[in-house]
Amino acid sequence: MSPAEELVQIVDRDNRETGVATRGRMRAEGLIHRSTYEEGTCRVWGRAFSCVWDGEITLQAEEIESGEFVAPEEILRRAETEPYTPDGLHVLRRYLWSP
């Protein structure tokens, strides 16, 4: 099983355990890259995956205040004046600037 397929299984299991109704299906596209990030006390060893979701997106009010679709370049522009997690920006930059 590929790491991306494993991710899909984890999401499916989490949705079942938390009672989140699944109104679509996630399809794993593959591993984009492995990443490490370290700054101060923040250490992240992670992986970025490409996945496609074909269903409705419903935010969990107790976990997410708001959400929107934003072009990656717009995120980098906003990050100059708005707070974003530094490890998340690191992963985004790697994604955009990787061959």
Which short descriptors sum up this protein?
3 helices; alpha+beta; 99 residues; 2 strands; 35% helix; 26% strand; two-stranded antiparallel ribbon
Could you walk me through the main structural features you see in this protein, from its secondary elements to its overall organization?
It contains three helices and two strands, in the order αββαα. Strands 1-2 form a two-stranded antiparallel ribbon. A hairpin with a 2-residue loop joins strand 1 and strand 2. The model has no long low-confidence stretch (mean pLDDT 81). It has 99 residues and is α+β, with helices and mostly antiparallel strands. It has one domain (3-97).
Give the fraction of residues assigned to helices.
Answer: 25-40%
> What is the SS-derived class?
alpha+beta
The total domain count is 1
- Write out the strand line-up for the largest beta sheet, numbering strands in chain order: 1-2
Estimate what percentage of residues fall within beta strands.
25-35%
**Count of strand segments:** 2
The tally of helices reads 3
Q: Kindly provide the radius of gyration, computed on alpha-carbon positions and rounded to a whole number of angstroms.
A: 15 Å
What's the main sheet like?
2 strands, antiparallel
Give the oligomer, counting copies of the same chain as homo and different chains as hetero.
single chain
Order of helices and strands: HEEHH
Poorly predicted spans: none
Shape descriptor: globular
What integer is the average pLDDT?
A: 81
Distance between the termini: 25 Å
